[in-house]
Design a protein that fits this description.
Elements (H helix, E strand, L loop, with lengths): L2 E4 L2 E5 L6 E6 L4 E4 L2 E4 L7 E4 L2 E4 L12 E2 L4 E3 L2 E3 L8 E4 L2 E5 L6 E6 L4 E5 L5 E5 L7 E3 L4 E3 L5
Antiparallel strand pairs: 1-2, 2-3, 4-5, 6-7, 7-8, 9-10, 11-12, 12-13, 14-15, 16-17
Length: 154
Amino acid sequence: KPQYCFGKIVKSCAADGLSATTVKTCGASEYCEGGQCLAQVCTPGGAVCSGNTATVCKADGSGYESGGTPCGSQKCVAGGCKAVQCQPATLFCQDGKLKTCSPDGTSVAGEKACGAGTYCGTGAGGDAACVPVVCEPGKPTCTRTSSEPSAPIA
């Protein structure tokens, strides 16, 4: 017997086509399509991202509303456009601290101050790291040809 949807109810058409019976009522987190209950793909009416476009979930939870707001150079996160702050999932130096960029690049996920005798700079692998201070500012340092005061490290 052919089945069809009537809202969130799966119905079956009688052989004579004159009546229908209820086969099943879809659950709270399901929608009805093509005569069967399917799991919702998003929260009905909730803010969502479709690629890099901010939009909303359809009222039945079956997918995303067409249109929306393209985020352009920004990043769509949880249904809204956010400015990219840093290279996603990388370390970088800012304000003398070693910081970790969030996986989506829209925020700082963590930071730490470099300890005594170190500063935030470029490590051996080329990534940001707390690296040892080469010399003490204002103290004499040895070179091959002379002894001269060292320059402060910026």
